[in-house]
Every structure is written in structure tokens, then in C-alpha cells.
Amino acid sequence: MVIVLQKSVYKLEAIRNTIYWFSKDFEILLTEDENFFNISSDDFNETIKKDFIKSLNDFSLREQINIETKDIKNLVVSKAFYPDLIKFKDIGEFDDPINILKKNGN
């Protein structure tokens, strides 16, 4: 059975993670052409295909969350290891880098 995936929808990293996860039980081959990834295995049936797609979507979501939270993770780690490097304002205080308060007469 072959699973055909659009390159514009799924990232190669998520596909490789999913293949790795399934490779303990199945021999899986990944090929690609200009627009599609082709995942093939003689061991796949409809149930396994459904589980593969479910895991692929899980890995894709994890990758997206990792990308979106990368800066926050780096900030937390930086603050933990270098507490004097990053200073936070007290609650209620903020910077006014473009002088909004002056423009509004405050």
C-alpha cells in the first residue's frame, strides 16, 4: 500500500519521525517527486494507514508548536541560567519606545 502526501501540507521532518516510530514493526520506504511524498509498505492495511496518518498529524502538530514556542522556551532557559541578563519590569510598568505617552500628552 502507498500513502501519498502533498509536500505543501506535510514537512519531511514530521514524516521521518512517523516512519521512525512505525519502523520497529514495519518496513517502510519513503520516496518523493516534485510535489508529493510517497510512503510505501507491503505491511500496511487500512487500519495501519489510519494509525500512520494519525501519528503523522501528531508529529506535524508537535513541530508547529515547537516552532511557535521556540522564542518563549529560549527566554525561559536564558532567564533560568542567566538571571541578570534579562530584566523584567514589575507588573504595571512598561517601556514606551515610540513615545506614545508623550504624543497623547500623558
Automatic annotation (TrEMBL):
Protein name: His-Xaa-Ser system protein HxsD
Source organism of this protein record: Meridianimaribacter flavus
